[in-house]
Design goal:
The chain is an alpha+beta fold. The strands form 2 sheets. Strands 1-2-3-4-5-9-6 form a 7-stranded mixed β-sheet, with helices on both faces. It has a two-stranded antiparallel sheet with strand order 7-8. The longest helix has 15 residues. The radius of gyration is 15 Å and the shape is globular. The two termini are about 25 Å apart.
């Protein structure tokens, strides 16, 4: 697997990005300021993430998604590790990520990758998304913010 930056915003894999964030307008907004990276295997795109600069000290993984047929193969972890290396190489001190209260697998993965919970933004998803989001039989209501200190 190789991970490369997708430099043409028009080539950003919206179908994959919308798996992680179903609001196309929000995705388009962070694509404007972010850097999109794709994971490829045998020429096929199997995963993606978007890294944005929140400040001079903080980078954020604004979106991360793996093709449904390729989930649970460790690709998400490799994408996160790549994002951490990119953020470190750019001199950031911290990297952050946010996810829904119902995203149980993602919460576990992020913590296994060294992130720790920092904050809960109450009603984020019910306030910013028209249609309800449900995962694991749970309504996605609150955003969980996680952070990792970089070296």
């Amino acid at each position: 697997m190789e991970i490369n930056q997708i430099t043409d915003r028009e080539q950003a894999p919206m179908d994959l990005l919308l798996l992680a964030d179903p609001n196309q307008q929000i995705v388009e907004n962070y694509l404007k300021d972010g850097h999109c990276y794709g994971a490829y295997q045998r020429g096929f795109l199997i995963g993606v993430y978007v890294l944005i600069n929140k400040s001079s000290e903080i980078a954020e993984i604004a979106n991360i998604a793996v093709h449904p047929d390729r989930q649970n193969e460790g690709i998400g972890r490799k994408l996160i590790e790549h994002a951490i290396k990119v953020a470190e190489s750019k001199g950031f001190e911290h990297i952050e990520i946010g996810t829904g209260n119902s995203s149980l697998g993602q919460l576990a993965l992020y913590q296994k990758c060294g992130f720790s919970m920092q904050a809960i933004i109450k009603d984020f998803f019910t306030d910013h998304y028209e249609d309800p989001i449900e995962e694991n039989g749970i309504i996605c209501r609150d955003m969980i913010r996680l952070s990792k200190q970089l070296t």
